[in-house]
Amino acid sequence: MTKSEYLTEYDGIVKTMQMYIDGSKQGKSELMRPAFHPDASFFGYAGEQLATGTKFLFDWIDKNGPAPKIEPRVVSVDILDSIAVVRLEVAGWSGNLAGSDVRMSDVIQKAFHWHA
To answer: What secondary structure letter does DSSP report for 33?
Structure first.
């Protein structure tokens, strides 16, 4: 991958992450939906509750409502050909479900690259 290709990929990833962040801040899943492939997998824990599937995520964002004071930080972006892994740290979550001043770590990835 050339430097120009890497930067283009990086910029696309950051733009996609911003959709996720904007939807989270405004409590509107429709803002983040374009960032997810229709068959994307999603899992983790929201407090004590196992969260699986993007439907859970989108419902949670809508029910939680706005979290305007979240402080997102892209900690790392690792790109290898068509594989990417992003680590996002978000402090200051609030809302109907989150409560107040909650921190979340999120690892986002697309999974494999075929070397031919």
So the answer is: G
Query: Side by side, which strands form the sheet with 83-95?
Result: 71-80, 83-95, 99-110
State pTM to two decimals. 0.89
CB 33 within 8 A of CB 25: no
Rounded distance between C-alpha atoms, residue 44 and residue 97, angstroms? 15
Residue 4 burial (C-beta neighbours within 10 Å; 0-12, 13-18, 19+): exposed
Q: Nearest-CA neighbor of 58 among 42, 39, 74, 73?
A: 42
Alpha-carbon distances, residue 45 vs 18, 50, 51, 84, 114 (angstroms)? 22, 5, 5, 22, 31
Show pLDDT as tens, one digit a residue, over the chain (116 residues): 888 989 999 999 999 999 999 999 999 999 999 999 989 988 998 888 899 999 999 999 999 999 999 999 999 999 988 889 999 999 999 999 999 999 999 998 877 778 87
